[in-house]
Amino acid sequence: MAVTADRLLQHYKPLNKTEQKLLAYATTGARFSIAKTRPTAATAENTVRASFLRFLILGGDNENPINLNGIHLEGAFIQGILRLSSAAIATNVSLTHCLCKEGIRLENTVIDGWLDLSGSQFSGVAAQYLCVRSSLEMRAFHSQGTICLIGAKIAGSLIFSGAQLDGKGHNALEADRCVVDANIVFEDEFSSLGEVRLNSATMKGLKCSNCTFTATGGIALNADKARVSGSVFLSAGFHSIGTVRFTAARIDGQLSLKGSHHLDGNGSFSLMAQNMIIGRTLMLTQLEHPLQNVAFSGSHVRTLNDDSKTWGNELGLNGFTYDFLTTDSPLRAKDRIAWLDSQTPSSAGKDGLKGSQSGFLPQPWLQLKHVFEKMGHFEEAREVGIAFEQRLRKAGLVGHRTAHWPWGTRWLGLIPHVLYGALTGFGYRPMRLLAWILGIWLLFTSLYWYAAVEHNVFAPSNPLVFQNSAYASCRKEYGEGWIKRSPDTPLPSGIGNWYTCNALRGEYTGFSPGAYSLDILLSLVDLQQEKDWGPITATPSPNAWVEFWNWDWGHSIRFLVWLETLIGWGISLLLVAIVSGLTRRKE
């Protein structure tokens, strides 16, 4: 093996007793254990110079070759900075339970085996573009400075189980654009003080449980644009103080927060997951604290799995899409509407602003309705649709195009929407229209019956009937004349009223208040009542003002007939729209 000038053992002599023992162990590949615990200070029995350790890690020299099993040192105090930048290390390296008050330099270093720093403490790790052919383990590792793994490539796992990382006012971990072929693991009471950055990192999976991420700035865990071929677990015992970010991340498996302890945004967003794509399930169940101030805007998941305790307030859901909903309780529309109402007041249309000033966002409502329909929950979809229309009106987004109309007329834009909701539940309750038809029919039937019986309002519209003297006793004038001639004699029944007149022959269509009302109300139906009967009205007055305020029974009934005709046309149009819609509905 060719060696450089500083790769000769003679340059490091004299060796202390600890270094002599380490050299002996290194030539055999055995583990040299000074102690099972990390030292607190340097002693004659535990000190190893960083420069001599570098000599061994790089393979020694021709006279003192290092075993291919590598260097395995435990419980040592490493004196000085361990400089391994741009080195090619052909063996495994294990520096466990060691203390180095200065850092380790691994920039652009290639390690053909694995690197194990478990239980050790360094003032920082500079390992930009480090390449490890196996795993990098930093279990129970203590860092008093930033661990920099920007652009690193690790063929195995990157493990921080039980580690305590303190960035000393800076980022605790920088692993932007790193590539980890297996999992990145933060477990077993892991803690960090300072931002943990995994921006644009690539990994198979991310496991975070029983761990605490604490921000010194605003962000505790940053995995923006991360690419995960497996799943992400922020599960039992996960606690963050500061924002957790997964903006624009791509996760092929699931993102699970099942059983997580608390995501505390510390006054800001607790979870930022905008424009994120999850190939399988977003698992948000059994959370110890509801999610507050989270943003899923523009994200897509295949399945959203949550429960009644998942959601808090200040949610950002605009553009959030999902294919299926699953929950531990029945899927009820009122629960999902309450979920949508947990958005920010502006997005939910509950901030009191109207029209163009309103920030109401319709997409979350339409998305929920679409998913309910897709899953076959048609009744829930209808309830969401009705609530959506009501919220539009509350936010002033119905008829807002009439805002430029003169004051006092703008409410006209609301009338069609109000009537549409009252009559058919905005098209989601079409059978409600039948109840309205029945009620309107009964109301007008009663009015026509009372007007016909008590006020002699209705008469045949066929002129041949009026020209026939045989029916003279049916005229209203005949009855009025009878009363004048014989004021003390009761008016006989069957005269003076076309409706009850006995003289009117049976061949002529008899007046029926119910059929008359139905004939007017249903414009497409002809029961011959409207053709053969009509209200008796006096000759119009040439004085328009007098005529306008002439509301005798004849004029009033004529106005009611016009009103019912208009109502009938409106109902007919709705019926046609509903019937044509029902023929296309999947349910």
Overview of this protein structure:
This protein is α/β, with parallel strands linked by helices and 587 residues long. Among the domains are: 430-462 and 513-587, no CATH class; 464-507, no CATH class. 26% of the residues lie in helices and 23% in strands. It has 13 helices and 39 strands. The chain has a 16-stranded parallel beta sheet that branches. Strands 25-27-30-34-31-28 form a six-stranded parallel barrel. Strands 2-4 form a two-stranded parallel sheet. Helix 7 packs across helix 10. The two termini are 78 Å apart. Residues 1-5 have low confidence and may be disordered.
- Uncertain segments of ≥5 residues (pLDDT<50)? 1-5
The percent range for strand residues is 15-25%
* Mean pLDDT rating: 88
Task: Please give the number of β-strands.
Answer: 39
**N- to C-terminal distance:** 78 Å
Question: Any idea what the shape is?
Answer: rod-shaped
Largest beta-sheet characterization: 16 strands, parallel
Helix-strand category: alpha/beta
How many helices? 13
Helix content: 25-40%
Radius of gyration: 43 Å
Which helices and strands, and how do they pair?
Blueprint: H1 17-28, E1 32-33, E2 47-49, H2 50-57, E3 71-74, E4 77-79, E5 82-83, E6 88-89, E7 93-96, E8 99-100, E9 104-105, E10 110-111, E11 115-116, E12 121-122, E13 125-126, E14 131-132, E15 136-137, E16 142-144, E17 147-148, E18 153-154, E19 158-159, E20 164-166, E21 173-174, E22 179-186, E23 190-193, E24 196-197, E25 202-208, E26 211-222, E27 227-228, E28 232-234, E29 238-245, E30 250-251, E31 255-256, E32 262-264, E33 271-272, E34 277-284, E35 294-295, E36 300-306, E37 321-327, H3 333-340, H4 363-374, H5 378-394, H6 415-424, H7 432-455, E38 458-460, H8 463-467, H9 476-485, H10 513-521, H11 529-532, E39 533-535, H12 544-548, H13 553-582
Parallel strand pairs: 1-3, 2-4, 3-7, 5-9, 6-10, 7-11, 8-12, 9-13, 10-14, 11-15, 12-16, 13-17, 14-18, 15-19, 16-20, 17-21, 18-22, 19-22, 20-23, 21-24, 22-25, 23-26, 24-26, 25-27, 25-28, 26-29, 27-30, 28-31, 29-32, 29-33, 30-34, 31-34, 33-35, 34-36, 36-37
Antiparallel strand pairs: 38-39
